Amino acid sequence: MAVLQMQRVSICALKKDRKAILERLQSLGLMEVSQPVEDDDIFQRMDTTSPRLSFEKKAHTADQALDVLEQYVPRKQSMFASLEGKKLVEKEQFRKAAEDREEIMDMAADILLCSRQIAEKKAAILKDENQIESLSPWLGLGVPMDFEGTEHTAMLPGIMAAGTTLEDVYAVLAEQLPQTEELDVEIVSSGPDGVYMAVFCMREDAGAVEDALRQGGFARPSQTVPEDPAVRTEELKADIGKLNREIEEKEEEIKARAPRREELEYISDYYRIRAEKYQVLGTLPQSGRTFLISGYVPAKAVPALQKAIEEKYDCVMDVEEPGEDEEPPTILHNNAFSSSVEGVLESYGLPHRGEFDPTTIMSFFYVFFFGMMLSDAAYGAIVAIVCFVALKKFPRMSAGMRKSLKLFMLCGVSTIVWGILFGGYFGDVVDVVSRVFFGREVSVPPLWFAPLNDPMKLLVYSMAFGLVHLFVGLGIKGYMQLKARQYLDFFCDVVLWYVFLVGLIMMLLPSEIFRSISQMDIVFPPALNTLAKVLAIAGAVGLLLMSGRDNKNPVLRLALGAYDIYNITGWLSDVLSYSRLLALGLATGVIASVVNQMGSMLGKSIAGVILFVVVFIVGHAMNLAINLLGAYVHTNRLQFVEFFGKFYEGGGKPFEPFENDTKYVDIKEETIS
Question: What DSSP line would sit under 591-614, residue for residue?
Answer without folding.
Answer: HHHHHHHHHTTT-SSHHHHHHHHH
